[in-house]
Here is the input.
Amino acid sequence: ELYISGYQFCGPGTHLAKRLARGDQGINSLDAVCCEHDIAYSRSNNLADRHAADEILAVKA
Here is the structure.
């Protein structure tokens, strides 16, 4: 895993499906936004969709 130390969802390789199945919660509002971003990435491989998710993350972070 290459995520930011202490966070559940910020960074690549966070094992999203496993964390969601366990019911892991983000540790703060930034981690919650990172979770939303990870979910958006998992739902689409479309570059435009991923850019939109990146923009949302940038605004909310």
Summary: Residues 15 and 51 are 21 Å apart (CA to CA).
